[in-house]
Write a structure and sequence with these properties.
Distance between the termini: 49 Å
Radius of gyration: 21 Å
Shape: globular
Number of strands: 21
Strand content: 35-45%
Largest sheet: 10 strands, mixed
Low-confidence stretches: 3-54
């Protein structure tokens, strides 16, 4: 995930997944146990209880029913266990319901049969960026899809990403301007990953990533930033490099130009990240374009690095 704050979230997810794997291994010495029978606990992030919707139709929505809690930011949940047979993503399905939207990830075994179990999975949510990340286990190493565009009011897009750590993740992008709560869990027979989202009026409003046909720029966001920042996202293409440029004048030469490599051999989207230090304290434009692609295909975002420190009042 991105960038510094996300490193903490990734550590928490990894820690929880390790605990889950350890528990599942201990259970495997006795009779078989199900890792999906009980609702997963929320690991981190504020939670909110499900209330009965005023709309009677919404009361029966599958993405609102049950006693699983919704969360609004941070590490959402962890589930799965050792011995899973899921090795590939077959499809990602989106369904709107009254009062909510649901996304389901279908999984297959190596032989192409519906999976019956999944190794440890962690889910976290970057509320300001509007990205739900499903951190998949190492055993899932293939996907039949790379991305999908949905016609949702909340869920806008999904990307399957080859991470810098050598694994696969699924990033669900929420529409800019929305405020939502979500929950994540596994259902069995066959094993599937389910994400339920609904609006939450006191949640963080999504700024959203900057997207083009070849680049998704998840950091920085279009808001105030510091003079040192991380440029991060994912790209698609065989060249395996992107050009990162920084401008303080759209008509002038770039202040910074840097080549950043990513794993271009994959058919999925691939992560890239670089840190820019010591930028000037004024409004800036960040541009990212795949190597060799026309400049018109670049992802661009404007940020404001102006120093907002309030000076101490003069001594009298």
């Amino acid at each position: 995930m991105y960038p510094r704050l996300a490193m903490t979230r990734s550590f928490l997810v990894a820690f929880v997944l390790t605990l889950l794997a350890g528990c599942a291994i201990a259970d495997s010495t006795g009779t078989a146990t199900s890792t999906t029978a009980a609702p997963p606990a929320t690991i981190d992030g504020p939670t909110t209880a499900v209330t009965t919707p005023e709309n009677e139709d919404a009361a029966d929505s599958p993405c609102l029913s049950g006693d699983r809690l919704f969360a609004v930011d941070g590490v959402i949940s962890a589930f799965g266990g050792a011995g899973g047979d899921a090795t590939q993503i077959s499809q990602v399905r989106w369904t709107p319901h009254p009062g909510c939207e649901q996304l389901v990830v279908d999984l297959l075994t190596t032989d192409g049969a519906p999976a019956s179990a999944i190794d440890p999975v962690g889910v976290d949510y970057n509320a300001e960026g509007g990205i739900i990340r499903i951190n998949l286990p190492e055993s899932i190493n293939r996907s039949a899809i790379a991305d999908s565009l949905f016609d949702g009011e909340l869920i806008e897009r999904v990307y399957v990403v080859a991470t810098a750590g050598g694994r696969i993740a699924i990033d669900i992008h929420i529409a800019p301007g929305r405020m939502l709560a979500l929950r994540a869990y596994e259902v069995a027979s066959p094993s599937r990953i389910v994400i339920d989202v609904r609006e939450q009026t006191d949640a963080t409003r999504v700024v959203g990533a900057t997207t083009t046909a070849q680049v998704v720029l998840v950091s920085p966001l279009a808001n105030w930033t510091e003079t040192s920042l991380d440029v991060a996202g994912y790209a698609k293409g065989n060249e395996g490099t992107v050009l990162v440029r920084v401008y303080d004048d759209p008509e002038g030469d770039p202040l910074v130009e840097r080549t950043v490599e990513y794993a271009g051999e994959t058919n999925l989207w691939a992560e890239f990240e670089t840190s820019l230090l010591g930028l000037p304290a004024r409004p800036l434009d960040i541009e990212v374009v795949p190597q060799g692609a026309p400049v018109e295909t670049a992802a661009r975002v404007g940020v404001d690095a102006t120093d907002r420190t309030v000076a101490d009042p003069p001594e009298v």
